[in-house]
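Practice problem. Given the sequence and the SMILES for flavin-adenine dinucleotide, write out the predicted structure.
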Amino acid sequence: MSDLFNPQAADASVSGLLSPGPQELSDLLRGWRGSKPLLVCGGGTTSRCASDGHWTLDLRPGFETRSLVPAIPAIRIGGGCRMGEVLDHLATQGLTLPGGLSGLPGLGYVLTGGIGPLARTNGLAIDRLLQICGVWGNGDPFVLDRSDDRHWRALCGAAPFLGVVTEVSMATSPLRPLWIEQGSMPPADLPQRMLKAESSPDCESLQWHWAEDEQLRWLHVSQQPAASAVRIGGLHQLPSLSGAPSANERLHAEVIGLLGPAAATGWNDVMPALKRLMRSRPHPGCSLSAQQLGGATTLVPPQATAFVHRDAVWKPWITAMWPAGDLTLRARSLSWLEELWALLIPICPGVHLAQLHHHLPFHQRELRLAYGDHLEDLRDLKARLDPNGNLPAL
Ligand SMILES: Cc1cc2nc3c(=O)[nH]c(=O)nc-3n(C[C@H](O)[C@H](O)[C@H](O)COP(=O)(O)OP(=O)(O)OC[C@H]3O[C@@H](n4cnc5c(N)ncnc54)[C@H](O)[C@@H]3O)c2cc1C
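Answer key:
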């Protein structure tokens, strides 16, 4: 699967590739006798869409729907679409939806929550879902809407453990221009900058990327004109926060996403230790980034979806990187990630499970911190809907 965006997944020696169409998926899951779990590939951006010794269920060829629902401002999106293609398609109709910082991810972006630069006014991507269609891990097909509270809640944030989602319908909104500012700043300025962002109007958001010792890059997105800002047509034209990955070296990585409330003063307190850890990164590709949410995302009750950290205002994510095949540096980078995570836990106690890590020792801890009290109910559902563990363990 060398065409995958994620280099670790692209380099994997997979057991095989399955590309069923909508008619075959049910039978495939019902009768699956091969190695488990089956890995699902939507956009192909995470390390767990293909892996050594596993079969991958590739949704890209068979589930490419991208069609507007007539008369309702909604779009049907197939499990094989990338979000960038969806946003481009919508833009031609003067519409958009709450996309993220990149157009590369597929439906996994929506199913794991979907936090974007417009989240403070437009909500999370899951908050725009109108209908979810797919096949449970046991092979039973489903078509669900909000009227089925329990299953809806589980699918909105924990779908990858329970079923394969083949298509969703999402409410769209009118496309509006955005005003972008970008720059760099010394790490010492970060807490003050975050404090300012926390009290800014909901139509603005701050995201930052720290991958150098003494400078971090920031990207400010506003829905209102600003003299010093660059106007773009919408999220489909958003510039990259982190820049292009190194072309010289084949790099593998794991990413963990955290969630925390407004806490700029807490960031101030951890700054000395944070700077030390950033200076001791095992590889230059190891980084810490964050995006802002809050506003509209806090208005949905925590019990309505499996994205339970509705008080979150910041989503930092930690990237551990190493040259492909260098197991020593892999171990050092992952332990650096855990050290950084431990430092941030007091101010960011939640996890955003946007990437699955069922191959890493901290998977169970991530599940607890992602789903909290909801985890037991998800496990009950899993026992019924995926009793043979065709999909990743919960
Ligand atoms: C460059 C980049 C920018 C990003 N920016 C953001 C951002 O701004 N906000 C944000 O919230 N996240 C962001 N992410 C994280 C990303 O949205 C998640 O990692 C997401 O899960 C990736 O989805 P995918 O379909 O591309 O991944 P894949 O690797 O194809 O799949 C990811 C996981 O989701 C499961 N999955 C995928 N599709 C389905 C399906 N149809 N049914 C059931 N399970 C499925 C798979 O089992 C797999 O484990 C970003 C990631 C990248 C690489």
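Check your answer against the key. The chain is about 25% helix and 25% strand.
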